Amino acid sequence: MAAAHAFRDLYGYEPEGVWTAPGRVNLIGEHTDYNDGFVLPFALPQRTAVAAARRADRTLRLHSADVPSGPVVLDLAGLDPAHAPHGDDGWAAYPAGVAWALLDAGLPVGGADLHIGSDVPTGAGLSSSAALEVATALALTELYEMPLTRPELAALARRAENAYVGVPCGVMDQMASACAIEGRALHLDTRTLEQRHLPFDCAAAGLRLLVIDTRVKHALADGAYARRRSDCHQAAAALGLTALRDLPHTELDKALGRLDDPVLRRRVRHVVTENERVARVGELLRAGRLRETGPLLTEGHVSLRDDYEVSCPELDLAVATAQAAGAYGSRMTGGGFGGSALALIDADAEAEVTRAVRAAFRAAGHLPPHITAAAPAAGAGRLL
């Protein structure tokens, strides 16, 4: 396999194993996870592979197939969020952060050589960072015989991204990558980490779920994501809530009347209505009524565009064009400011919808989008 061969060519000996973790698509439930809310993602077939072996010293060597330079070499004793890799080596902050999080938790991780290969698109809203973190965490914990549960693994990976990389994400991406089941969407309570694996078989229903990668790159560490999170926490405090998850949908209008700031009102409206959409989509999946989820997907996009203000012209064009071409529903997925959109369509309409979206992007002068069909894949595991 490619990762093992590349490891041998790079380091001159065989890896002890290869571990992989998937990217994810979030069907519904955007920007709810850091509000202790509900999400409904599933894992993608695209995966990040980490070939790894232990070292006798305290050195961590990190190499990416996507970076032409040699390994980034770090001393485990010197890992510090204040001095995380940056610039051309910024990618290394994610696996280094995982090692740091393990050490910070008092776990007995030692030195290691890692080679990383991935076909999860970066900056596409498909959680390439969580795939890298979870695959690294699984490799290091198994190499050093640390028996963590998958939720514990996901929590450590999230801590790496929050505290070491500096992105204040919720736990959804890491949980989806670590815990997903093939053929199922993961209904996750991000406060309790309670999981329900719901059937999501588009093929059996004669449907396709298209992922439209706009190729607009977003950088969630640039402050916009953190500002949205701060808005939500400020609003929750103003309403006397631990988190916006604690505001029932039936009390939304009354709560909005207590907020003077129009921005905070919009943020609250999105989070509360999005949690309600997750519940309604979950009910439809359990009933096998996949087509009926479409309008809720579109409703979610409008909320993300207007109330949460995290869409962009390319995402809006993808959604509007897919809808006009016959999609049952369409929405952006991921943190926003670029990345990917989803479109739920009849299987026999895939070519037509794909042509329409590509033509619309061409007419608008945008880069040609990458469009693929997605189906729920398995979560992280050992490949070799």
Structural features, described:
The structure is a single chain. The protein has helices at residues 2-11, 93-104, 128-143, 150-165, 172-179, 224-238, 252-256, 262-286, 294-306, 313-324, 350-364, and strands at residues 17-28, 38-54, 59-64, 72-75, 112-118, 184-189, 195-199, 207-213, 329-333, 340-346, 370-373, 381-382. The protein has 384 residues and is an alpha+beta fold. The strands form 2 sheets. Strands 1, 2, 3, 4, 5, 6, 7 and 12 form an 8-stranded mixed β-sheet that branches. The chain has a 4-stranded antiparallel β-sheet with strand order 9-10-8-11. Strand 6 and strand 7 form a beta hairpin.
Give a brief description.
It contains eleven helices and twelve strands. By secondary structure, it is α+β, with helices and mostly antiparallel strands. The strands form two sheets. Strands 1, 2, 3, 4, 5, 6, 7 and 12 form an eight-stranded mixed beta sheet that branches. Strands 9-10-8-11 form a four-stranded antiparallel beta sheet.
